[in-house]
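Inputs:
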Amino acid sequence: MAKDKNISMSVIRRLPRYYRFLSDLVDKEVDRISSGELAKRMNLTASQVRQDFNCFGGFGQQGYGYSVKALKNEIESILSLKSGYNSVLIGVGNLGRAVAMHMEFEARGFKLIGAFDQDRNLIGKPLNHLIIKDIDGIDSFCDENKIDVAILCIPKEAAESIVEKLYGFGVRYFWNFSHFDISVAYPDTIIENVHMSDSLMTLCYRITDAKRNITETIQK
Amino acid sequence: MAKDKNISMSVIRRLPRYYRFLSDLVDKEVDRISSGELAKRMNLTASQVRQDFNCFGGFGQQGYGYSVKALKNEIESILSLKSGYNSVLIGVGNLGRAVAMHMEFEARGFKLIGAFDQDRNLIGKPLNHLIIKDIDGIDSFCDENKIDVAILCIPKEAAESIVEKLYGFGVRYFWNFSHFDISVAYPDTIIENVHMSDSLMTLCYRITDAKRNITETIQK
């Protein structure tokens, strides 16, 4: 399968969602699915599904539908979910703990090899298969291990200084839950932000907008 | 300030980010800022900033920059962050707990009025100002309270059945951390999804793509 080099971010961002739906279908032992049926389940149009898949050379024959399992495996391979990138978790408060416990890192392309905090009450305690380490030891950990990704579950101010340090050790990839906008300060990094409070504020706007529209419709 | 009714979602999704940056500037006691300076700090272009603000009638006079405090207040008002929408948390596992402890609901337009779980070990325990309630009591809670928003921190299968129930009680707004695609089954709802694993998979793709490009550049 040919891989197009200039795939837009909006197509790429849909791939994990395809992957989730296809994994579900595999679990439900569905063998084949048409682009129309897949589109319907995902609230897309059949032509959008076909266009998306065409970016990667297409996965099926017109009229026969897609093999669910083959398609899932293709997308898994495009997303490189078997990469096992070495990752460290910075911050094991409520959020960091939830991230560590909740996410299937190995199935998503990552391997959690360290967890760090500054809280004396947490250091030395277990977190899944790891023991939480003192953040002061991050330098020697970086010397001894090749870290691909840092997962930041710390406040903005703490993130600013730890990113500077990790960047110095060559870390360029971040999964960022903090409010520090890393890419502004470090343009040569790759960042995925999870800004939960932005999502919550957007929801607030959309609810207010919907309520206003309902009121206006009633008044007409 | 006139509010345009047809503001694109991409503009709306930038508002929380503006709001965060402006809150920061207020904290740092910055009085005025030009669109150019704000754009630089946010990795946008000055013309994009001006265009975004023009959607809401514009906030400043050419050449004078914006009053940081006034701009922050305007955006707060557009986002309706003082709405205090009644919200319930469904699922107080690691993720639900992190969401409850980590988010400043009141400053984001929401009010957490209930937290529910099915785990006997959690029911009756405190969570911030709340006591965790048995999920079996959600019906009577819905009868007695007007719920605007449900926050779903539960697995997909549990989400499917609880959404059906809440929808029956008139709940139409969801902050969804589960993998259940609510809007496919219930098109007349407003959903903000936080799909953390999609973000992680996207990161995996982007890292792999970046590493491939580096390798190819070296080989050339």
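The radius of gyration of chain B is 21 Å. Flag for discussion at group meeting.
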